Amino acid sequence: MAVLISNDAELDTLIDAxxxxxxxxxxxxxxxxxxxxxxxxxxxxxxxxxxxxxTWRGIDAPTDVLSFECDSPFDEDIPADESVELGDVILAxxxxxxxxxxxxxxxxxxxxxxxxxxxxxxxxxxHVDEDGAREMEARELAVLRELARxxxxxxxxVRIGPTTRHHDD
Length: 169
Hints:
With 169 residues, the chain is of the alpha/beta class. Helix content is 41%, strand content 15%. Strands 1-2-4-3 form a four-stranded mixed β-sheet, with helices on both faces. The radius of gyration is 15 Å and the shape is globular.
């Protein structure tokens, strides 16, 4: 696994590189991805995120996370020993930190959730309907609890709200 972390604006990423890599690795492991993959994780300012959101989703507002999928690690046409370019997860730490209290979370907790959320999008999860949202949230919670356990924290204390049910945003 290769994780390219980009932070050209030198923003507070809310979690460190080791936590970013651990979250990416845990999502991949939990989804049964064993082949080599490359993932880009970028941190951008709110105005840059707004521009990306406007360009790619037609929504002229900043958002917390965007994912841009490239190749699937489950694509049988790609040789098993060849590294797959999974895609890009783009995070806006300013937006994430501002919304964290709304979900009764710390900025670091919310950032981990948004990173896991973005990674699951790269692996094909979506939340356009209630069933998909429930499935995605269950996967998010399972990954976040395992990450907490690995950090030596109480996994049972990890809670997330209905974060993926934004149909019209």
